[in-house]
Amino acid sequence: MGTSEAITTDSEGDWDAVRELPPSAKLVAKVLEYNDTLTQSQLAEETLLPARTVRYALSRLEEEGCVESRFSFSDARKRLYTLSIESR
Question: What are the structural domains, with CATH classification, of the chain?
Answer without folding.
Answer: 2-83 (1.10.10.10)
